[in-house]
Write a structure and sequence with these properties.
heterodimer; A: alpha+beta; Ribosomal Protein S8, Chain: A, domain 1; 8-stranded mixed sheet; 5-stranded mixed sheet; B: alpha+beta; DNA Polymerase III, Chain A, domain 2; 8-stranded antiparallel sheet
Chain lengths: ~600, ~375
């Protein structure tokens, strides 16, 4: 009788291990591109057939391997990237487990062509995990790996592959992810001989423009992180451009990772600057000492564990928050012309244009392509990372006196500045001021409530009445002293008095209605304090249509710019729109 | 219409009426003054539909008639004319103005487009000296609300009783009330709510020594002297019961020098919050201590010797409200009465028969 438990033959073990690393064509692409990057490639070309199900080919101009290494590379846990267990604590290369190549080779018809110098190289062919041939070939420096008939020998896995279009999309996402964190490397992606991506070396902003277009690129602002070991850099989206937040990427030491918790924190940092329900895109690069994080959590390496997560979170939130405080959410009316229009001097006909076909690939990714030469031109002429949205900065006001103010249609305050004109929405501006003042009242003691000569006696709905009873103490802290009087009636004995035109009864009624029955605004609040502050800000702020005296405008202006986030009201709408002198000049044809 | 008039009289008349002419209006005829010549006088009328003013001046009328003239240009022309008789001739909607060798023609609008003045029957009227009425107005109407949510409080309550009359105004945070004897009632009791702007016209238009007749229709109130009249729309609705909220049991009383108190509060107000104008008053036997603390701005303290022998008590106030009500206190000393930090405080002149009283609601201090 044969023993019940047997050691599996290597090729079977490899097939099982492959399941962890290689799930679908996209994971093959990811592993191979990572290898190419670790080999120091300056250019990586990926081509797919039938979504990679028929063939995946990844070619690079990296350091290549000699014959001995090429054969060894196909053994599991053979790696050039770490030597001993201690190295695991400070991994700086993308791959290190030594699993990728044998895993891929185990589930495909695999070939590897590599050379460490131009001239003679090595060609290896493997089928179903068994070495078929190892020959001398002529080739340039670099490595080309081809995996054909993926999962041909693992029907169970092959069944779970999705349509060619879906697999192509997944593969291009994998390439994009790596392209975003390897800006000095050129990438191309072809599917069935159609070019989907052609990316030259670029800055982050340029690369985003190459991938998703200038509109996306110009919706982003630089997150200038602090210098030093612990920091965060990258691009975040202007709050008013926030939509679905589909493009959210986090990298730790140029290694992409997925962390929903950090995404929630970024949303948190944007709180009250974006309309509830909308989410900003971001491209965040955490720069951390290698030993402060653990990337060896999962074979697919999409998760990272931080030694001091709290610190990382704080750093991230602070960086985003600090940056948002400096911008007015709305770009100036003269959004800078797309750099591409200026710096692409070659005749358009020469630029290879990849056609988008609906049924195949990832149409959203198909962009106007360019050769590397063109990109070199782009770099010099564009003058590097010029940020078009930087014009949206609010000028630091400490340096200047309060400008002259006018009121327009009893709704907007116009202020002349050195560089043009600020248009301030008086209601939005006062919302921001009231919100922050009310939150401060909750945090610190102090404040006052105006006692009313004629207390308000208000009949409420059942839900409003119970909300009033429940929140009485907190409402008292913002100035509404209320006494439940029974029979769904409350007596309001004092009220806040945030401005001359404040209507205490209407504000209280609107607030208690909103607090009792909810609204998108207050439902997005973190806690009761924030609910009340948001509601008071929204209902109690100076309304549009209210004529303001010069003093009132000046007071509002000063208080707005003393807030933490002057650019947004509590709904996330902008408070300020800028009209620059350049824009005016342009409109008058004086460019 | 054809008439002659002295430049001085014309200019004075136009000045009296022009103040009611709205600066901007959607109804063009409201920018005009109505001239109506008859007998030996000419009537000048202006209105913004809420308030109307009518002035009668002597003139040599050759032909009776009426015309409307653009108020602003007519006033400017009159101001620039030399001091000589002015001859006005209306030809349909045009008016010719001649004075010495200066000649003007202005295009007016037909008289028929001018709104008709409210009809008020003066057979039942109250009679009062302009001086007394103006004193009531100046001491109270400043306290009316400017916030538009409670239109009632935008008005001044005027109570006419057989023996006395009272004016009250409040914005719900502070209140001013003045009562005067009334000897010639002449009409039934009434509670009228009058727009402060109309009362402002009454203050401005009539000379102190004039005797006024006041009468009402259903919706309007009219004030008239021999040659001048003001008409105004009344605000409808019940005025809140102010008598009920005036504290009768304020047992703590401070008598302070009005000028000293006012200047101390004025100093404190400099450092008070622009939003709440909060100052704290700590009443102690013999003195009141003032204190202001405003986050991000600074602090201030002051002290004033006063006549007080009650227990120590600290109350917060809106400095502006205190300053406003003290402005009209006529005596050297002012009497402040209060009971508790969250209850209404009252101020009145320390001497005299106390026909004037102001009330200020405190700010509750939340710390």
């Amino acid at each position: 009788m044969t023993p019940r438990i047997q050691i599996l033959p290597d090729h079977v073990a490899n097939q099982i291990a492959a399941g962890e690393v290689v799930e679908r064509p996209a994971s093959v692409v990811k592993e191979l591109v990572e290898n190419a990057l670790d080999a120091g490639a300056s250019r990586i070309d990926v081509s797919l057939r039938n979504g990679g199900k028929t063939e995946i080919r990844v070619a690079d101009d990296g350091c290549g391997m000699d014959r001995e290494d090429a054969l060894l590379a196909l053994d599991r846990h053979a790696t050039s990237k770490i030597r001993q267990a201690e190295d695991l604590a400070r991994i700086s290369s993308l791959g290190f487990r030594g699993e990728a190549l044998p895993s891929i080779a185990a589930v495909s018809r695999f070939s590897l062509e590599t050379a460490s110098e131009d001239g003679v190289g090595t060609g290896v062919r493997v089928a179903g995990g068994r070495l078929q041939a190892a020959d001398e070939i002529a080739r340039r420096r670099g490595t080309t790996v081809t995996a054909a008939g993926l999962f041909g020998n693992v029907p169970a896995r092959a069944k779970f592959l999705r349509s060619a279009a879906a697999e192509t999309r997944a593969a291009s996402e994998a390439v994009i992810l790596l392209a975003l964190c390897n800006l000095q490397v050129g990438f191309s992606l072809r599917s069935n001989d159609r070019e989907l991506l052609s990316l030259g070396p670029a800055t982050l902003r340029q690369r985003i423009g190459q991938i998703w277009g200038e509109e996306e690129a110009s919706s982003l602002i630089d997150l200038d992180g602090p210098d030093g070991e612990l920091g965060v850099t990258g691009l975040i989206q202007r709050p008013d451009e926030a939509r679905t937040g589909r493009r959210r990427f986090t990298f730790a030491n140029a290694r992409p990772f997925v962390d929903r918790g950090l995404g929630r924190l970024v949303d948190e940092a944007y709180r009250t600057t974006v309309v509830p329900g909308l989410r900003p895109d971001y491209f965040l690069f955490l720069n951390l000492p290698a030993e402060s994080m653990d990337v060896n959590v999962h074979p697919a390496k999409t998760e990272i564990r931080f030694r001091d997560r709290e610190r990382v979170e704080r750093m991230l939130v602070e960086a985003v928050r600090r940056r948002l405080a400096r911008i007015s959410s709305t770009p100036p009316l003269d959004r800078a012309p797309e750099p591409a229009a200026v710096v692409r001097p070659t005749a358009p006909a020469e630029a290879p244009r990849a056609a988008a076909a609906a049924g195949d690939g990832a149409p959203a990714l198909v962009r106007e392509g360019s050769t590397p030469d063109q990109f070199a031109l782009f770099m010099t002429e564009a003058g590097g990372d010029e940020e078009p949205s930087e014009a949206g900065e609010i000028e630091p006001l400490a340096a200047q006196l309060r400008p002259e103010l006018w009121q327009l249609h009893d709704s907007y305050i116009l202020a002349a500045t050195r560089r043009g004109l600020l248009i301030i929405d008086q209601h939005s501006a006062h919302e921001r001021v009231l919100f922050e003042e009310t939150m401060r009242r909750f945090r610190e003691s102090g404040g006052e409530a105006q006692r009313l000569l004629f207390p308000l006696t208000l009949k409420l709905s059942p839900s409003e009445y119970s909300a009033a009873e429940e929140l009485a103490q907190m409402l008292g802290r913002v100035g509404f002293e209320i006494e439940p009087f029974g029979d769904r009636t409350v007596i309001v004995r004092s009220s806040p008095n945030p401005h001359e035109h404040f209507d205490a009864e209407r504000c209280f009624r609107d607030m208690i209605h909103e607090l009792a029955d909810g609204s998108p605004l207050v439902d997005a609040a973190r806690n009761q304090h924030e609910r009340i502050a948001k509601s008071l800000a929204c209902k109690g702020a100076i309304k549009a249509g209210q004529s303001l005296s010069q003093d009132e405008m000046a007071d509002l202006f000063d208080r707005l710019f003393a807030t933490e986030l002057p650019g947004h009201d509590v709904h996330g709408r902008p408070t300020i729109v800028r009209l620059t002198l350049e824009e005016l000049a342009r409109r008058f044809g004086r460019t | 219409m054809k008439l002659s008039i002295t430049r001085e009289k014309l200019q004075k008349g136009l000045g009296a009426v022009s103040a009611t002419i709205p600066a901007r209006t959607t109804l063009p005829v409201l920018s005009n003054i109505l001239l109506r010549a008859d007998g030996d006088s000419v009537q000048l009328c202006g209105t913004d539909l809420d308030i109307s003013v009518q002035v009668t001046i002597d003139a040599e009328v050759e032909t009776a008639g009426a015309v409307t003239v653009p108020a602003k240009k007519f006033s400017e022309i009159t101001r620039e004319l030399e001091d000589a008789p002015v001859h006005l001739t209306a030809d349909q909607d045009q008016i010719r103005i001649e004075c010495g060798r200066s000649k003007f023609k202005l295009y007016g609008l037909p008289e028929g487009e001018f709104p008709t003045f409210p009809e008020v029957d003066f057979s039942e009227s109250w009679k009062m000296s302009a001086e007394a009425l103006q004193e009531l107005i100046s001491h109270t109407s400043f306290a009316a609300s400017t916030e538009e949510s409670r239109p009632i409080l935008n008005g001044v309550l005027w109570q006419l009783r057989p023996e006395s009359t009272t004016m009250v105004a409040t914005n719900g945070h502070r209140l001013a009330l003045m009562t005067k004897d009334l000897h010639e009632a002449g009409a039934p009791e009434a509670d009228l709510i009058v727009p402060p702007k109309a009362l402002g016209q009454v203050e401005r238009l009539f000379d102190g020594e004039e005797q006024l007749e006041i009468a009402r229709s259903a919706n309007h109130l009219a004030f008239r002297s021999e040659r001048r009249a003001v008409f105004t729309r009344l605000i409808e609705g019940p005025y809140p019961n102010f008598d009920q909220v005036i504290p009768k049991d304020n047992d703590k009383q401070v008598v302070a020098n009005r000028a000293g108190l006012e200047s101390a509060i004025r100093r404190m107000a400099v450092v008070a919050s622009d939003q709440t104008h909060r100052v704290r008053l700590l009443f102690e036997p013999g003195a009141v201590k003032f204190r202001v603390q405003t986050p991000d701005l600074g602090e201030a303290e002051d002290e004033l010797a006063v006549d007080y022998d009650g227990e120590s008590l600290e109350i917060g106030f809106n400095a502006n409200y205190l300053l406003e009500v003290m402005r009209y206190m006529s005596d050297d000393d002012v009497k402040l009465s209060f009971k508790a930090p969250e209850r209404a405080a009252t101020l009145e002149p320390a001497e005299g028969d106390s026909d004037y009283l102001c009330l200020v609601m405190p700010l509750r201090l939340l710390d």
